[in-house]
Amino acid sequence: MSDAAIKHVDRDIEKHSTGMRRKLFTTNHKVIGALYLCFALMMFFVGGAMAMIIRAELFSPGVQYIEPNVFNSVTNLHALVMVFGVVSPAIVGFANWLLPMMIGAPNMALPKINALSFWILPIAFLFVFLEQLSPLAGGAGNLSIYPLTVLQGDKGSLYIFIAIYLLCLSYLASAINISLTILYARTKGMGLLDMPMFAWTWLITAFLLIAAIPVLLGFVTVLMADIFYGTSFFGEPSPGISAQFSNVFWFFGHPEVYILILPTFGIISQVIPTFTRRPLFGYVSMVFAAAAIAILSYLVWLHHMFMIGRPQGESLLVMYATMLIAVPIGLKVFNWLATMWHSEMTFEAPMLFAIAFLMLFTIGGCSGLLLGMVPVDFQYKHTYFVVAHFHYVLVSGAIFALMAGVYYWLPKWTGYMYDEKLARLHFWLSIISVNLLFFPQHFLGFAGMPRRVPDYSTQFSEWNALSSIGGFAFGITQLLLLWTVLKCVLGKGQRAAPQVWEGARGLEWTLPSPPSHDSFKSQSQ
Amino acid sequence: MLPLVAMADYELNLSRGVMSVKQEIYDLHLLAFILVSGIGLIVFGLMIWSIIYHRKSRVDGEPHFHRDRKSEAIWTIIPIIILLSFVAPATRVLIFQESSPQEAEMTIKVTGYQWRWHYQYEEEAFGFFSSLAPEHDAARQKDSNIDVSSIENYLLEVDNPLVVPINTRIQFIYTSNDVIHAWWVPGLGVKHNAVPGFVNIGWTNISEPGIYRGQCAELCGRDHAFMPVVVKAVTQSEFNKWLTMKKHEQSETGFENK
Questions:
Q1: How far from A47 is each of A74, A93, A384, A397, A406, CA to CA, in Å?
Q2: Which end of chain B is more exposed for a tag (fewer CB within 10 A), N or C?
Q3: Do strands B190-194 and B181-185 pair parallel, antiparallel, or not at all (unpaired)?
Q4: Closest to B195 (Cβ–Cβ): which among A308, A330, A362?
Q5: Which of A113, A376, A360, A127 is nearest to A261 (CA)?
Q6: For chain A, how big is the Rg over CA atoms in Å?
């Protein structure tokens, strides 16, 4: 179909359908972005409910509410939902809503593919939940630890495999779409180094996705053949190869971590300059730092599996590469700090969340540095210290940055200013409860509590109880986020001006709030 | 809910351990912990200073800078120097940790099963299974109505502990019968994966008699949380006595543990 024909069909759908139909079948980047974000918000509460179940079971020693195998399934599902159902759709949603407006494009480069990649998501998660309902459900762990999955004879895992195929398809399509949009749909005169930082981090993330997702697809295919067709890629007759499974898994798994965090770095790089009223310090080096992080992320997958027994030279090299990642990340943190230095800061909700991100991400980075040292890593690995580390990076890191982004662009998206008092209450309750939730877990790890256990020795009781209280508080606090967002969406509150924030710069702020359905209609290349 | 009495013997940190390698790991952990805490404090300090003094309501008229190659170079090079101070001792400890002694005086094969351990004393051609102690197993069942805080070392007790002599170079050979497990004793600084069809090697030399407790540290299915490790280190003469008794016991019952 030619371009003109595609445009024609698009316009047809837009013209002849009204209300919900128009919203659901649209190829408009703003509506798809909103759909992605709604989906992520919904799944945030689904995944959060699972976390509540986990913390309830761990509140005190003994098995109280759920059987150990159910506990394993819930933990597994919590991770899957939070990674692929919350953070990933949220960052894709931000990209959809914002990238075309930021670079002056009328829509994403591939609008139909865009709609498709969204609609695959709910179907994929339908399969994820079907797996849980299946009597064959496994609970082999979110890492699908081999040969655990095969030995448990997880025929029910077929659903998970279908779900992972669909998720891969969706995110691969999104990544291609986003990279094409950034590379080819920029407005006239906007060079690569004139782009907002968010576009840069997404461009790098898109390339990470394009390289990492096929690895996931590949090993899931092989695993499926092993389970359903009796092949032995990873299994009999030489089961020692199960160690190879871990290799392939983490070759995908480690870059995936940076896929989740890089776009949120981009959000922080948009928020901090606005509320400091200063341009981002060291823009070019920020770009290079993000690229360096992406490249290094492919060299360090082994640090997830030191215990499996690797040659010494290999362990040493991976340790050095792992520690090296601290340099570009440190550069980013210091550049954000330098942006704040001698600036004119104000502390609206987005800035509060950005500052919390900076502080708590630094804690996560420091524990990551400890984990990178092989000899001590042997003692930290598979303990609650690791749980504390990645939750500091992903919850008070990625999720906090996403919240900063939501408050920052919510007035632009809905046309109504959010309730600043509610947002600040949400911030203060969140930051207190998130630390109460995860900080004690560092000590639990040091004291020797293994992760992924439904029950523990009585010496760990106090910190677990404290952590659970923090967990419940954090969970309930998020209802404030839902309420604040709903108020804006329903049009309660003050109307927002085009330039919502005094210090905001960028093309999206030149558009009215909310922007019209087709902004930057005539694209100029 | 929070019995303060129990806080008295509370551990907040890695156990110090009794083996020299564990000592090295502990020192490295402490060094790294102090260093990262320092880094954290500097970053937090700068941030809080900036939050207090560089707000819009009290602009100080300082010239703002947004591009300064010199300062960027400084905060690239300083972290590299700090990292080197981590890397050097970490490299030394890793090489020390993995260097096996010239000759093992004793070899124990540790095999992971879902969900218990099997210990085989290679030189003695003698071995046995070690599972969660029965009373613990009863208490951990859902709806057991047993108060777990009344049980000593809840979930960290086995029916047959691994007994080893002190001051002996012991080599462990790890493997698994089904899925990947991990044999972890924090007090000895030993943690290795037991991988099916694959042999992993670790070693220890315990200097102080005592009981060292640990757990499986790799998700291995339903009862992953319920396969503890208990190592009892005794003097050589006590060990010999135990070995004779245990062997006799096994030949009496005719129970062949394999």
A1: 9, 18, 19, 17, 19
A2: C
A3: antiparallel
A4: A308
A5: A360
A6: 23
Closest CA–CA distance from residue A242 to any residue of chain B (Å): 8
Residue from the list B3, B10, B191 with its beta carbon closest to the beta carbon of A307:
B191
* Global ipTM: 0.88
- As a whole number of angstroms, the distance between CA A97 and CA A89 comes to 12
Which pair of structure tokens corresponds to residue A60?
């005190």
- Please state, as a whole number, how many other Cβ atoms lie within 10 Å of the Cβ of residue B1: 9
Report the C-alpha gap between A203 and B59 in whole angstroms.
Answer: 36
Which residue is it, tokens 């998501």?
A: A121
In the predicted model, what is the mean pLDDT of residues A355-368?
94
Task: State the pLDDT at residue A148.
Answer: 65
A6 touches chain B (CB under 8 A): no
Cα separation, A188 vs A103, in Å, equals 9
Chain A hits for B113, CB-CB cut-off 8 Å, are none
Rg (CA), chain B: 25
The beta-carbon contacts of A252-256 under 8 Å, at least 24 apart in sequence, are A252/A212, A252/A213, A252/A215, A252/A216, A252/A219, A253/A143, A253/A301, A253/A304, A254/A297, A254/A298, A254/A300, A254/A301, A254/A303, A254/A304, A255/A208, A255/A211, A255/A212, A255/A294, A255/A297, A255/A298, A256/A83, A256/A212
- Would you mind telling me the total number of residues written for chain B in this entry? 258
Residue type, A214: P
Extract the runs of DSSP E, i.e. beta strands, from B114-180: 116-121, 126-130, 162-165, 170-176
Query: What is the distance in angstroms between the CA of the first residue and the CA of the last residue of chain A?
Result: 21
- What whole-number percentage of chain B has pLDDT above 90? 23
Work out the number of other CB atoms within 10 angstroms of the CB of residue A295.
Answer: 12
pLDDT of residue A427: 97
- Residues A32 and A14: their CA atoms lie apart, in Å, by 13
The whole model's pTM is what? Answer: 0.90
